[in-house]
């Protein structure tokens, strides 16, 4: 039996699946989820919050300011002076203008320090300020 030239070619062509486009899509999805994820903000200091029976839950706070029992102010795990709160909050608020400020004041902290921090946050242009409490119920 005579074979033609085109019959000599094997039918065993590359039958594997090209996964390069799939890897590109997975990589793009990974970047998308990393960029859009909201991370839990931690203050870096242990605070004993006061109890409140009328407290409500709040979502979406992106700036957390802590005041410890020695009246030291903490933002982004760094200690700052009470009068420097305005500059730090303004910088963080510029990143997310829709965010709010939550102040975690220790039960043993001064009211004066709390008011100074609240004034600094309002002076930075943040209208939505809350004080974190524990549920009293």
Automatic annotation (TrEMBL):
<comment type="similarity">
    <text>Belongs to the ExbD/TolR family.</text>
</comment>
<feature type="transmembrane region" description="Helical">
    <location>
        <begin position="20"/>
        <end position="40"/>
    </location>
</feature>
<keyword id="KW-1003">Cell membrane</keyword>
<keyword id="KW-0812">Transmembrane</keyword>
<dbReference type="InterPro" id="IPR003400">
    <property type="entry name" value="ExbD"/>
</dbReference>
<keyword id="KW-0653">Protein transport</keyword>
<keyword id="KW-1133">Transmembrane helix</keyword>
<protein>
    <submittedName>
        <fullName>Biopolymer transport protein</fullName>
    </submittedName>
</protein>
<keyword id="KW-0472">Membrane</keyword>
<dbReference type="Pfam" id="PF02472">
    <property type="entry name" value="ExbD"/>
</dbReference>
<keyword id="KW-0813">Transport</keyword>
């Amino acid at each position: 039996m005579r074979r033609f030239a085109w019959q000599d070619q094997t039918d065993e062509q590359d039958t594997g699946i090209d996964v390069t486009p799939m890897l590109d899509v997975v990589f793009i999805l990974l970047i998308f989820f990393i960029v859009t994820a909201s991370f839990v903000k931690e203050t870096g200091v242990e605070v004993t919050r006061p109890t409140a029976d009328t407290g409500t839950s709040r979502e979406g706070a992106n700036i957390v300011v802590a005041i410890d029992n020695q009246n030291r102010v903490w933002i982004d795990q760094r200690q700052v002076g009470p009068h420097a709160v305005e500059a730090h909050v303004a910088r963080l608020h510029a990143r997310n203008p829709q965010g709010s400020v939550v102040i975690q004041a220790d039960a043993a902290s001064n009211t004066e320090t709390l008011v100074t921090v609240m004034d600094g946050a309002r002076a930075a242009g943040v209208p939505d300020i809350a004080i974190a409490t524990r549920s009293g119920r």
